[in-house]
UniProtKB/TrEMBL annotation, chains A, B:
PROSITE patterns: FAD_PCMH (PS51387). PANTHER family: D-LACTATE DEHYDROGENASE (PTHR11748), D-LACTATE DEHYDROGENASE, MITOCHONDRIAL-RELATED (PTHR11748:SF111). It comes from the Bacteria. SUPFAM superfamilies: FAD-binding/transporter-associated domain-like, FAD-linked oxidases, C-terminal domain. The lineage of its organism: Bacteria, Pseudomonadati, Pseudomonadota, Alphaproteobacteria, Rhodobacterales. Keywords: FAD, Flavoprotein, Oxidoreductase, Transit peptide. The keyword Isomerase does not apply. It comes from Amylibacter marinus. Its cofactor is FAD. Residues 36-214 form the FAD-binding PCMH-type domain. Belongs to the FAD-binding oxidoreductase/transferase type 4 family. This is D-lactate dehydrogenase (cytochrome). Its EC number is 1.1.2.4. The keyword Flavoprotein applies.
Length: 458, 458
């Protein structure tokens, strides 16, 4: 019997039918939302508790069987693919809100909980969890990939919004990192080390999340621009002036066309900024007045401002559905997400060079950006069964990443490395990659925790 | 010749007189601002460049000679004491502003630069670096202890304000962490791992710091309260309502008395909140109006508000001099700083229990707090040559730390562990301490980087 089969047998002995080896369940956990080939794990475990996760890991450690954590499978870089075989550990049964501490603006949750479920649960408290990557991802998965999204410009990424963790290590030990205090100077910041570690150092089994009070007032605004530089320059000025805007999304003309068709809207087919303001009534008015002035300085068009929640919801639904709107134009292709983030002073250059490169190859790539953070996505659509087409699109995506590095940026602002971007690790981090590999070896000497992801271990 | 003497000889051969073994220079680098005994290093090196730091570390690694980094020596937990002997590496010659990137709100600096020198250098740019621990510390030292201070409630701690680092590792290798991009999901967050590592994992030789635009308007306010609970409840309400206040300092009645005497002021001898507001004219008025209302709800006294910079500067000078004001009351004693941080809901309980404990022992401890963060200091004054007095004060400080832990907090909000608080590491972190020790061994197998600090290595 193979080592993995031995581990599966032993886990089945204590989990019973919560260790599933059916083809259907395995296939479901071998999928991904990007262009990577499907790859079912050998079994899927459904633990109900941290103690069960620990027991599963101990058995896998004994047999050196790979373990792949699974939240909702919405990763865009193949994070949950069992590239070296092994057992997928689904956290779907561990999705409780364990405690809400309204006075401390904290919630203690299990990793399988999705962000929308948490916010629904919080509704009566007047609090919300601000990180919004678009997909209704699990909070554990969002932590593991250091996710962010449209609101990071105001509220930060998962890195800034997690106060404490419980983690099962590669030998099955359970540790706690951080505390309920807002800040601390007592040792290495293990919380921040696990956030973004993509399951390679341990499995997050509990999270203490920082919440925000629902703002007294929320307003949204939309403004179109004649060219993408003007829209980006508006963003740069807003960042430099420190306007505490809650969302500031760049949507290019091609994306607007797709959004109009998909969401039955009629925005002018030009680059737009979609904005949102949070604060007191006075602050929201003050911020949006400032943004109206900045937009006008860059020849922005009609500045459409609204405090009506239905108009606001329609706006953000259209923005969140942008990916599906684009995908609808390419029904038989798969999305290839790119995720470059550059210093804000380089954003216009990065985006205009990217558009020029795509145009030169006759490829249409729609550009959407969390512009206030210097982060943008150009989603390419490709038929993975057409080798020439796949190669061209991969080459263009590769050049976007290299362009980001050349401008002092990073190859991933929020999607992570997974299997897709390991080839850039040395270019981005130099010798620091060997330090990451040392950390990985120190935490996981037998390389069983989501092996083949994040850090090249050569 | 001892191994350390061999290292000193070898370093002297290439640094010349920038390797100093004079009694005076050694004594200067054996001091500390707390109650720990003086302890001169065997030599002090003054490198001029990262390459020289790397060379020094390589020689020390060869001879297994301890290396202690030195900024300005303003640590309060004996971080720079050579408790296992060895060579102190002063970064004072590495104090340049290497580059200011106003469009990206970044500055690249060397670690020996002090925060006041940086802000003086930035004056013409309209930008500033917000972290303010009171002392005019070196920015490298502030990074190494994860310092914060009065403005953290709005701008965060050193952890939130460093984008990238250059670090010399224990084998002399030079690595870079992070990039100029505002966010990234590409690997373990090494920047955050070095911030707060107290020189035990490597020596920071360059830092990319995040700057803020000078706010359009700044206002300050002072309000007194009948009791400390009312002042704290005002803070809790402000935090829960999300008022983006820039400073919110709690100063108890005893401290006010000391401040009045020292700074020739006449505040009522009652608990006070010292506040500062940053933003647009409209935002500053809006925030202070909100604070006036909240203070009134908790029976606050006269809410003295001012936008005049001379009044504001006098206020913050008085606050920053509070330690010296207290010390002036005890001219022959040494300060023993405490630094507990608790979840904000527990702040009133933590402080009132602390005051009761001090009162019960006839010890007067003034309480000053970065209340918006749940962080407070009770400074005790002690004659280290009186064993009974020292023992009593240490016991009281110990109980403050334990009280903080019992309330879900941390034994240090911003001063760090150094040599003084290692005894609490297991109580605060449990098994996670062994993970920190593993990280230390992975980075520094021969334990030469500031040995005897932060992580107990038993």
């Amino acid at each position: 019997m193979s080592k993995n089969a031995s581990a599966i047998n032993e886990i089945q002995a204590f989990l019973g039918e919560r260790l599933n080896t059916s083809a259907a369940v395995r296939a479901l956990h071998g999928q991904n939302e990007a262009h990577y080939p499907e790859m079912p794990p050998e079994a899927v475990a459904f633990p109900n508790s941290t103690a069960e996760v620990s027991e599963i890991v101990k058995i896998c450690a004994k047999h050196r069987c790979p373990i792949i954590p699974w939240g909702t499978g919405t990763s865009l870089e193949g994070h949950a693919l069992p590239v070296q075989g092994g057992i997928t550990v689904s956290l779907q049964n561990m999705s409780a809100v364990l405690e809400v501490l309204p006075e401390d603006l904290l919630a203690v949750v299990q990793p399988g909980l999705t962000r929308e479920a948490l916010n629904k649960d919080l509704r009566a408290t007047g609090l919300f969890f601000p990180v919004d990557p678009g997909a209704n991802a699990s909070l554990g998965g969002m932590a593991a990939t250091r996710a962010s999204g449209t609101t990071a410009v105001r509220y930060g990424t998962m890195k800034e919004n997690i106060r404490a963790l419980e983690v099962v290590l590669a030998d099955g030990r359970i540790i706690r990192t951080g505390s309920r205090a807002k800040k601390s100077s007592t040792g290495y910041d293990l919380t921040k080390l696990f956030v973004g570690s993509e399951g390679t150092l341990g499995i997050i089994t509990e999270m203490t999340l920082e919440l925000q009070g629902q703002p007294e007032a929320i307003a949204a605004a939309v403004c179109d621009f004649d060219d993408i530089e003007s829209a980006i320059n508006t963003v740069i000025m807003a960042v430099q002036m420190g306007v505490p805007i809650a969302r500031m999304e760049l949507v290019d003309g091609l994306s607007i066309k797709a959004i109009n068709a998909y969401s039955k809207l009629s925005y002018p087919e030009k680059p737009h900024l979609f904005m949102e303001f949070h604060g007191s009534e006075v602050a929201v008015k003050d911020q949006s007045e400032t943004m109206r002035e900045i937009s006008a300085d860059f020849q922005g068009g009609d500045f459409q401002w609204s405090t009506r929640s239905e108009e606001r919801n329609a706006l953000w639904a259209a923005r969140h559905n942008a990916y599906y709107a684009m995908k609808a134009l390419y029904p038989n292709k798969r999305g290839m997400a790119t995720d470059v983030c550059v210093p804000i002073s380089k954003l216009a250059q990065a985006i205009t060079e990217t558009i020029a490169d795509l145009d030169a190859h006759g490829v249409s790539g729609m550009i959407i950006g969390h512009a206030g953070d210097g982060n943008y996505h150009s989603t390419l659509f490709v038929d993975p069964d057409q080798p020439d087409e796949l190669a061209l699109h991969l080459k263009l995506a590769h050049r976007m990443a290299e362009r980001g590095l050349a401008l002092g940026g990073t190859v991933s602002g929020e999607h992570g490395i997974g299997v897709g971007k390991q080839k850039f690790m040395a270019a981005e981090h130099g010798d620091a990659v060997s330090v990451m590999a040392d950390i990985k070896r120190s935490f996981d000497p037998d390389n069983i925790m989501n092996p083949g992801k994040l850090v090249p271990m050569n």
